[in-house]
Specification:
The chain has about 120 residues and is an alpha/beta fold. The protein is built from 6 helices and 3 strands; from the N terminus they run ααβααβαβα. α2 (about 20-25) runs parallel beside α3 (about 50-60).
Length: about 120
C-alpha cells in the first residue's frame, strides 16, 4: 500500500504465497516473462517459506528471474535469519515489517537511484 501511495512503481503485483510467486514469474505476459525489478519476500509465507522460494527461484530459467532486487521481510529480527540472508547472493537486503515511508525512501535511494 505504501508503494502504491508513493506512486513509485508502474505496476505492483501481490501474490498470496511463494508458489503463486513462482507461477507468476514463469507465466509470460505479452510474450515476455514479467521480470519485476523488485521482489519483497516474506520469510514466513503460507505453504512455502521465503527460504524455500529462493531455493526454487534459483532453479528458474534466467528469462524468468530477471529481478534487480530481492528484499527479505520479517516481523521478527532473528540474527540467524539476517546472517543466512547475507550469505545468499540473490538477497539484496533484509527489512523489518511493516514497511514505512522512510524504509521505502531508503530502498529507492539505495537500489533505484536512477529512477529518482
Amino acid at each position: 500500500m505504501i508503494m502504491k501511495r508513493a506512486g513509485c512503481a508502474e505496476k505492483i503485483v501481490c501474490v498470496e504465497n511463494g508458489l503463486r510467486a513462482l507461477e507468476y514469474l514463469q507465466t509470460p505476459e505479452h510474450g515476455n516473462h514479467p521480470q519485476p525489478d523488485l521482489i519483497l519476500l516474506d520469510i514466513n509465507m503460507p505453504g512455502m517459506t521465503g527460504w524455500e522460494f529462493l531455493d526454487r527461484y534459483k532453479d528458474l530459467e534466467a528469462a524468468c528471474r530477471g529481478v534487480k532486487v530481492i528484499l527479505m521481510l520479517t516481523t521478527q529480527l532473528d540474527p540467524a535469519d539476517m546472517e543466512k540472508a547475507r550469505n545468499i547472493a540473490e538477497i539484496d537486503g533484509f527489512m523489518h515489517k511493516p514497511m514505512t515511508v522512510e524504509m521505502l525512501n531508503e530502498l529507492l535511494r539505495k537500489h533505484f537511484e536512477e529512477y529518482l
